[in-house]
Amino acid sequence: MFGKRRPRKTSIAGSLIIFAAISWIVGLLFFVAAIPDKVTDDGSKSEAIVVLTGGSMRLETGLDLLSKGAADKLFVSGVHRGVDVAELLRVSRQSPGKLDCCIALGYEASDTHGNAVETANWVRENGFKKVRLVTASYHMPRSLLELRHVMPELEVQPHPVFPDHVKTDSWYRWPGTAALLVGEYLKLLLMPMRWLWIDLVG
């Protein structure tokens, strides 16, 4: 009697594992498809530009947008302590005296959720309603969700950058890119639980 039930239980467990694996893969494919492959709006003006540090081309793109008048203010979130505006401008090969009056730095964020909280605080302090968000294309979906979670009323214009080392076309053929995207997807899946935990602990 017991010997006959074991295959059925094993079959159910196996089916659940297969279903979960297929769902995970399908979700990953949808996530990759949602990664922007171009800047959809690089002409309209925002009240501020927000740059999330942590990857190549982000700060340079933000400074270039500021110099072209895409916004009057630039906020850089997640800056290492001890780094000031002049240092950032020198590293980015910008004139220290040209843009430093229009740049604010945030030193508190150490991850994407921290970026969102730090950005929301700065945006509220300045009374802004519309910002242009600059971060890597693969990082954009999670960054938008985090920012909209902490400040749903804010209008956010995505401005992705495209690092050369991230090969989103045929990404599965590039082990480095595949690992990066899978890691980003896993972080995205864990976000609701993290939000719940943060809400519970205050």
UniProtKB/TrEMBL annotation:
User: What Pfam families does the record tag this protein with?
Assistant: DUF218
Ranges that cross the membrane: 12-35
Entries under InterPro entries matching the protein = Cell_Envelope_Assoc, DUF218
The keyword Nucleotidyltransferase is assigned to this record:
no
Q: Which UniProt keywords apply?
A: Membrane, Transmembrane, Transmembrane helix
- Domain DUF218, first and last residues per copy: 47-186
Which biological process annotations from GO are given for this protein? Answer: Gram-negative-bacterium-type cell wall biogenesis; peptidoglycan metabolic process
A GO cellular component annotation in the UniProt record: plasma membrane
Q: Supply the name of the protein.
A: Uncharacterized SAM-binding protein YcdF (DUF218 family)
- Organism source for this protein? Aestuariispira insulae
